[in-house]
Specification:
The protein is α+β, with helices and mostly antiparallel strands. It is about 45% helix and about 25% strand. The protein has two domains: about 160 residues, Regulatory protein AraC (Jelly Rolls, Sandwich); about 110 residues, Arc Repressor Mutant, subunit A. Strand 6 and strand 7 form a beta hairpin. The two termini are about 45 Å apart.
Length: about 290
């Protein structure tokens, strides 16, 4: 979480802003919620625009829209232009300097919160400083600007949800692009999880997954503990139980048949697991949710 430290932030700025739209939320600087947007907006900066800060109290992300600006974060320089998203964390020294003869335009958002650091690191902006993005990320940023400037009901919560979506989308894009650079352990974990996702209904035990993926069962269990949020057994069981709940509510299949679809030879074993997971027997789950 980012707190405003007891020190003076030195700001050296020059140049002009041709046009701008800003928004402000009531977020406290010691925000304890997972995520809180403080302020942000749109700026069209003249070609002589330059700003230097020794530090800043919040996380910042910004999206280039037109023109060119060089952004130096600590010792690394990034070129902001259309489709480039950049960001820096609190206490990072940074310098903006517009380049060329075309005004530089950008969106930017300052935020804080107990999950801000984690999300910022996941997005890869903490390590990369800037990334090239496509239409999906640009659309999300536009929605933040629209909702925040219109100040519609629940605007802060809506914008924070968009912001979290944006940061996690960057993480997903990065994972997809860097699949070849993942560690062997991560690749093995993803291989095992993918097999479970595609075949969980027929899987009898985690050892079946280990055998099909060519790994030792104990090693696979360690990988799920390291990279996942559940053991292989629990991960398989959760998928089965959620599919079972969906079948109870969307099909007329008897419980015995649903158990068979999910790979249970003994329907009573399925019912016990279902009751333990959902707090109701399959029959009562169906009655409670479908009764008029």
């Amino acid at each position: 979480m980012a707190n405003i430290p007891d020190k003076t932030y030195v700001l050296l700025a020059q140049g002009h802003i041709r046009s701008a739209r800003y928004f402000y939320f009531e977020t406290r600087p010691d925000e304890s919620d997972p995520l809180g947007i403080v302020f942000g907006g749109y700026e069209m900066c003249d070609t002589d625009f330059e700003i230097r800060r020794q530090a800043y109290p919040y996380f910042v992300i910004e999206l280039g829209l037109a023109g060119l600006c060089r952004l130096k974060i600590n010792e690394n320089t990034h070129n902001l232009s259309y489709g480039t998203l950049a960001g820096f964390s609190p206490e990072s020294g940074h310098c903006y300097k517009a380049q060329g003869k075309v005004p530089f335009e950008h969106y930017w958002v300052a935020f804080t919160g107990s999950k801000a650091q984690q999300l910022f690191e996941k997005s890869t902006l903490a390590s990369n400083g800037s990334v090239a993005v496509g239409g999906e990320i640009i659309f999300i940023m536009e929605q933040i600007m629209r909702v925040a400037t219109e100040k519609m009901p629940h605007a802060q919560q809506i914008c924070c949800n968009y912001l979290e979506n944006l940061l996690l989308s960057l993480a997903a894009i990065s994972d997809g692009r860097s699949g070849g650079s993942l560690s062997r352990a991560q690749q093995t974990y993803l291989k095992c999880r993918k097999y479970i996702d595609e075949n969980f209904s027929q899987i009898k035990s985690p050892s079946q997954v280990a055998d099909r993926c060519g790994v030792n069962i104990r090693y696979m269990s360690r990988l799920f503990k390291q990279f996942g949020s559940a053991s292989p057994h629990d991960y398989i069981n959760r998928l089965k139980m959620n599919k079972g709940a969906n079948l109870l509510l969307t099909s007329g299949m008897p419980v015995k048949q649903i158990a068979k679809v999910l790979g249970y030879e003994d329907p009573y074993h399925f019912s016990r697991n279902f009751g333990s997971f959902h707090g109701l027997s399959p029959q009562n789950y169906r009655v409670n949710h479908l009764s008029g």
